[in-house]
Structures are given as structure tokens and as C-alpha cells.
Amino acid sequence: MKMSLAVLLTALGVFLYWYAFIALEESPMEQGDILKAYDYQPVENFQLDMTETSPNVFSFTYESFDGEVVYGQISYPESTADNYPVLIGVSAMGRSYVRWWVITDLANRNGYAVISIDARYHGKRKDPDRTLRSIMNDLHFFGDKRDYEAMIRDTVLDHRVLLDWIERQDNLDIDRVKAAGYSMGGQISLILGSVDARVNDIISIVPPFIDDKTALVAPKNLVSLLGDKPALLITAADDENASAADNDFLFDLLPGSNKERIDFDGGHILPEDYVDRLASEFD
Predict the structure, then answer these.
(1) Angle made by CA atoms 205, 251, 19, in degrees to the nearest 5
(2) Of 84, 99, 114, whose CA–CA distance to 203 is shortest?
(3) N or C, fewer C-beta in 10 Å, the chain?
(4) Per-residue pLDDT for 1 more than 50?
């Protein structure tokens, strides 16, 4: 027997109520408790294995704080220097480090070494038994946020381990480290810059607005720790993942006098030439 329209609408209403008020409840956390989740034990006998794939470009692997293997790539400028400022590029959800290179040429031309790694469950770290879709379905339909929060948190920690390596390299300048990311990468960049003092400049490009349903990985709960670090927030007026009010709210939370904002017309996918607006960030 076919379900009547009334029954279908009732079922839909029950589902939407459950989705909005039960599956994903707001669960605020104290900032100190959030910070504890981003503590980690530095890796003893750390080793980063590097292979040159083309001139000035190297792929690498290393074991992170929990023994998980991280895959990444570093690109050096053609011009030589005693040491290079560093751009850490953080990819959007569903993308791998090889897709980050949208601003690599710009950064390399301005003397930056560019480093990017795969986030957890991304790129070479995909898990066929735990796909991104399954993680997001569990989050949105069943209110199970554990793997989503762990994915973001552990990726931040993977970057902190990477920063340990950068700090030990004579040819990389740990005092000039910029983190830039698109979408989920913008979210991670804001968190990384908030919890790790070695990141001293942040470019967050169309980060999704994360509320206290997943408080552990919500940049709004941590950005007060940025202090006076330069922070550029790039937003879109009709972003599907962050309303204009959300973007205003996040920008207002950024502390200090060195914050800037660029707001584009359109949605979450920015125009191809948006990178041109970043040229001054690498002078």
C-alpha cells in the first residue's frame, strides 16, 4: 500500500524535528577543555622520508603522534636562499594534498616553500571501510560526531607534528609560517593557528561555520587565542556553508588589529581568479 501524502509529511516532520533537536544537539565546551584535546606527545626519533618527484618538488611520509602514516608534498622556490618562509596549505574536504597547489606558484614565486599533507580519511589516507560520506552521514543523520571531530582534531595534530619537523630544518624559517586553507582547510587553519604559536599568519578561505553541535572543532571557540597574528578571512556573500551573519560573527571574533576580510559575491565555490586577490599576502 502506498504511503499517503499526510503520513509522508508527518514522517518527514518527525524526522526534521529529530534531526534539528535530537540528532545534533548543541554541546558547548569550555575553551580549556577544547585545548586539552589538541595536546600531543612529540614523536620520538621522528623521521620524514622524502623523495624528489620533479625539480624542487618532493613527496614525503612520516608517522604522526598516534603512529598513523601521513602523506604530503613540499615545493621549494627555484631561487635559492639560506632559509625559506613556509606556507602550509590545507585542502578542502574530499581533496588531497595534490589538489592544494592552486596558490603554490604564487607562493613559490615569492620565495615560500609550500607544504601540504592529506587530512585524515583523504587522498592516500582514504579508508574504504570508513568513507567520508559515512562519517558525514553519521554526523548529520545519527548525531554521531565522534569520527568527524576526530578527523578534524587529528589532522590539526598531524600538522603540529609537521611543525616539529619544520622547526628543526635549517632551510625553513619557523618564525615565518603561514597556514592557508579552503573550506574545511580554512577551518583547520584557524584552529591550527589558534592552538600552535609557531603558525604566525592565517588565511582562512570560505570556512564553513561550525557551531557547538561539534564544539571541539569549531573555530569560533578558539580564535580568541590568535592574539595579534595577521588573519585574513575570505568569505562569500551567498555561501551555502556559512551565512552572511555567520561570517560577520566569525570575523568579529578575530582578535587584534591585524585582521582583514575579503568578501566575494556568489557561493562557496569562489571565482577562479580569487587567488589574484592574495598576491599581497606573499610580498
Answers:
(1) 75
(2) 114
(3) N
(4) no
Instruction: Go through the domains of the chain in sequence order and give each one's CATH number.
Output: 29-282 (3.40.50.1820)
- What are the residues facing 51 on neighbouring strands? 59
Phi, then psi, of 217 in degrees rounded to 5: -120, 25
Averaged pLDDT, 67-88:
96
Q: Which amino acid is at 262?
A: I
Q: CB-hemisphere CA count at 13 Å for 139?
A: 18
What residues pair up with 179 in beta bridges, in sequence order?
88, 202
Helix (H) or strand (E) holding 15: helix 5-18
38's CB contacts (< 8 A; 6+ apart) are 153, 156, 157, 160, 191, 195
Question: Where do we find the cell 639560506?
Answer: 82
Reading the block at residue 107, the C-alpha cell is 607562493
Identify the pLDDT of residue 60.
Answer: 98
72, three cell numbers: 604530503
Which residues lie closer than 8 Å to 184 by C-beta, 6 or more apart?
Answer: 90, 91, 92, 93, 119, 152, 207, 208
List C-alpha distances in Å: 240 to 183, 236, 244: 11, 9, 10
What pTM value is reported for the model? Answer: 0.91
123 Cβ contact list (under 8 Å, min separation 6): 71, 91, 95, 96, 97, 98
pLDDT tens, 184-240? Answer: 999 999 999 999 999 999 999 999 999 999 999 999 999 999 999 999 999 999 999
Q: Is 14 exposed, middle or buried (0-12, 13-18, 19+ CB in 10 A)?
A: exposed
The three grid cell numbers given for residue 183, joined into one nine-digit string: 573550506
